[in-house]
Amino acid sequence: MNISIIGTGYVGLVTGVCFAKLGNKVICVDINEKKIEMINKGVPPIYEEGLEQVLVENKNRIEATRDYRYAIQNTDVTFICVGTPSEDDGSIDLKFVKEAAEEIGEQLRNKDGWHLVVVKSTVLPGTTGEVVLPLLERYSGKKAGVDFGVAMNPEFLREGIAVRDFLEPDRIVIGYYDDKSREVLRKLYSSFSCPIVETSLSAAEMIKYASNAFLATKISFINEIGNRSKKIGIDTYEVASGIGMDKRIGRAFLGSGIGWGGSCFPKDLNALRYWAKEIGEKIDIINSVIEVNRKQPLRMIDLLKKHIPNLNGKTVGVLGLAFKPYTDDIRESRSIPVVRRLLEEKAIVKAYDPKAMDNFKKVFPHITYCSSAVTVLEGSEAVLIIKKWDEFRRLDYSGKIVIDGRRVLEAKKTARIYEGVCW
Ligand code: UDX
Questions:
Q1: 325 lines ligand 1 (CB under 6 A)
Q2: H-helix or E-strand containing 165?
């Protein structure tokens, strides 16, 4: 098929590159000239494992442009993959989605033949049918379900392993407005062996939010169990193994620690909470999941203060700053509240992360950044392990108080005092 992708962030680019790998011809549209140039040279503007190789191998089937007209005229299916940033109240900003719908609509006005528009951006239930579809109709002067099709096809890509997640999904969700749209997406995904769930547009939108909310709930749940277990000396990982073997529960996302961060979970849970309010409802469980997660990283400071009650003037090392290992992304990282609290307590903070220090410097310019994990340890009385990078396993923590937020159990062997957050 000939596919256009609007937006070349990590979702759009991974989607485009993977569709090209599956044999489709892909045109990516972005407003950023630099990104366009890079993609056309076979260089991904973002880092995702395996992305560069797939892009290079399929360069003859993928191109990037600014030109909506060219993209829509030369393709049969368009995926909207633009960002949906958060507003302060938790609602999501639909500006880019609306702009994309307007541009596509304008181009459809002059296009002969049927075209399918698919929303892949994460949007609240009702958005595709009540915002995108009317805009497409208004700007094209045509009728949805007759002259063009509309569908909603959420993504479940984890940052860092997005290419693998795209190519080996657990399921594919197709929310469709009209039967022809469903047929076209069925065909597009026909080489996948996973189940395909076919739903209404708004159920597809809700599946995305409910998936992320459930995963975040699992983490907050095990952290709550873990906080209580820790008090009486239970290792929560043993509990997680014990309950995770129950097929109804599953072991995934029961990794207790200092909670969830990143570009999706916090934003999506806040949006869900906002959406519930908008329809005159409350989502109590989501409020609790968010609240547990807000407090969870600060448990590291409580554990630290058990051993050093007054942190004023004490040097504390922080290992790992990104929201999860192997990325430079610090959005909503649990390291942020930890470092903030350390500074409020007037501790001297030395930090290291193999990838994320440049980003962290923008938020905390005045702490000491070290060139290695070993340097962090030098002169620090205590060390907080925030992320599970392999190199943190091999360090010699002799003489240090180690508060471990991510279960780097090797640290226990050498540390003077070792405390795991939930074990
Ligand atoms: C998530 C979803 O997994 C993905 O499907 C969605 O499309 C985007 O959001 P991502 O944000 O890349 O992906 O990260 P993920 O690997 O899911 O981890 C999210 C956060 O949860 C991280 O901060 C991670 O450290 C934390 N986490 C994860 C735990 O604390 N315990 C776990 O057991 C798993």
A1: no
A2: helix 162-167
